[in-house]
Each structure stands twice: as structure tokens, then as C-alpha cells.
Amino acid sequence: MKRNVLSLFVASSVLVLCSNAFADADCQESGILEANGYGKIEVMPDTAVLSFSATASDMNSKEAKDKVEKQVSAFVRGVRGFGVDNEDIISDSISIMPRYEYVKDEPRKFTGYEAVRAVTVKVKDFTLIEKITQAAVDSKVSEVNGVYYELSDVTEVKKKADELAMKDAQDKASRLSKGFDVDLKKVCSLRFSGNAAPRANYKAQPVAMNAMASDSAAPEVYAPEKQVVESYVSVTYAID
Q1: CA distances in angstroms from 216 to 57, 146, 182, 219, listed in the order given
Q2: For residue 8, which of 182, 164, 190, 167 has the smallest C-alpha distance?
Q3: pLDDT digit string (tens) for 129-143?
Q4: Got the DSSP string for 93-105?
Q5: Which residues contact 23 (CB under 8 A, 6 or more apart)?
Q6: What is the per-residue pLDDT for 225?
Q7: Contact 27/184 with Cβ under 8 angstroms?
Q8: Which residues pair with 95 in a beta bridge?
Q9: Is the pLDDT of residue 6 over 80?
């Protein structure tokens, strides 16, 4: 006779007795116990990512482009002077767009071209953040879009979070089996999920570079916070 289904929710674990949940013989003929585990690792980031934008306007598109290229070239030279590798300086392709002024009941008026080029710099030495930002100011790069932190390699941290999640699920399954006087036979299914990368930690909002260049402006303190790597596991056991 097939057993009736009985669901018991304790903590974040579920005990379910059923007969036809899985194709495997043991899983098909036995009751089922499912436990959910969670693992979390907090870790300090090791890389700062700085994002800047160089912009320039001119009635001539080539002049607008040349102005931006001059800004970016000067900025990149300054960053290289701090020992930053070329592969850690990423310059997007330049975009040039016509600009118009719109006045009600009047034809639109062409006001010139705007050229924009984004530059991203990655550094592991956080003491360089202020120097690189100042280099952008000196090069007349118009905006800093933000600073955030990341882990260059999350693989080992993710493994540790997975191990914690598995241990959590195993402990819950063991407590449930003892509490309901059943025996764990074999694992019928496993499911993993979690954040693929730690949450980004933004430390600056977009601001105009000319405001940052003020002598009276207070220096920005660049202090990263710990980032969280999470893992979730769901395991299903056959039980007697």
C-alpha cells in the first residue's frame, strides 16, 4: 500500500513521506526527507574599480573628438606613472553625438557635437585611488562615475560557502531524522544555488571633476566593506 504524504516544516527543512518522488528504487519506495542549507562567507575585496568619463564639445566633430582623446591620453599617461599595468586600464571606444537646442514653436538649433569616452582603471593598491582621481582632474577628465570593490578570484571563497551550506543541510537532516525517529538511507537529489559573485560595494557617486578640484573639498576616504558570498543547497534523502 502506498504511504500517505506527510509534510513537516521545521526550521528551513521539510520532511515529506511519499512513494513516487524519484525514479531510483530506494527513493521511490521510501519516505523522503528534504533539508535546506545556507552558507555565507564575508571577505574583504582586493580590487578597486574606478570609472571615469571624458567629454568635450565643439561645433566641429573632429575637434570634439581630438579634445577627448587629448584628455584620455594625458590621463592614461598619469595612471601608468603610478605603475598600473596597461591591461588594467580599459578605454571604451569614443562616441560622438550631435546636440540640439529645443525652443517651443521654433526649429531646433544645432549647438555642436559632444564626444564621450569612458575609462576604467583597476588597482589592488587602494592608496592609488586618490592619486588616480587627482590625475583625472589634472587631465581635465570631466566626471568620476564611481568607485566600487570586487574580488579578483571568488572561486575559493565560493567553495568555502558551499561547504558551509552542505554542512548546514547535513546537520538539519540529522536533527530531523533523530527527532522523527527515521533513518537516512541515501541522497536522492542535490541542488545548489547562490550569488555567482559577491555584491558590489560602491563607495562614490557621480560628481563633477571641477568640484573635486576645489582646494577646500574634503578628501574622499576610500574604505571598502566586506563583501558577502552566499551558497544555498537543498538535499533530499530517502528514509526508513
Answers
A1: 28, 21, 71, 9
A2: 182
A3: 999 999 999 999 988
A4: PPEEEEEEE--TT
A5: none
A6: 86
A7: no
A8: 116
A9: no
